[in-house]
Amino acid sequence: DAGITQSPRHKVTETGTPVTLRCHQTENHRYMYWYRQDPGHGLRLIHYSYGVKDTDKGEVSDGYSVSRSKTEDFLLTLESATSSQTSVYFCAIQGARGYTFGSGTRLTVV
Amino acid sequence: AQKVTQAQTEISVVEKEDVTLDCVYETRDTTYYLFWYKQPPSGELVFLIRRNSFDEQNEISGRYSWNFQKSTSSFNFTITASQVVDSAVYFCALSEEDSGAGSYQLTFGKGTKLSVIP
Prior knowledge:
Chain A is mostly beta strands. Helices cover about 0% and strands about 60% of the residues of chain A. Chain A has strands at about 5, 10-15, 20-25, 30-40, 40-50, 55, 65-70, 75-80, 85-95, 100, 105-110.
């Protein structure tokens, strides 16, 4: 399986503070994705990347920005965290067979 | 726009019973992929199967089987002789190619929580 790691695994932050989540892959895949998972909503796409410096918005992109300066790293930033952004965040990479997901980051905004 | 519906929010079965999880999808594309993922209580997402829209053959893998029917836009998942370890949330997902970018974005259903009771 492709190597994909997310950091941190858990984070508690205060409303209004900036937060950056990191996704790191070791397989040189071109496409990377950020999803959030909320009860009753399944997983929803936030942003995705189709190459270094190439990103686009997903279904629920408001309040989030992303950056991809290297193939292996895809960063998700909450510029000013709100309580509605409390969620579990999953990163995914798109390989030949399909998608591999990271272990997730549980973010709590208090 | 693509959409995936998993009408069953929660299902409980007694161990060794068979159970079918329903998935209905909507898409305007002729080329797409369908997936099933398992999310056990530990939280990770485990890939189970990918099916190409041109391949309507049913598939069996051990106690798992999948029934893909384009005529009804359904991709149902059956677990035979369920076990306690099958207790999890199961997600059906659909991907279409994002024109121009070459990526295949996943659209997920809301998931079905399966509880297998000993």
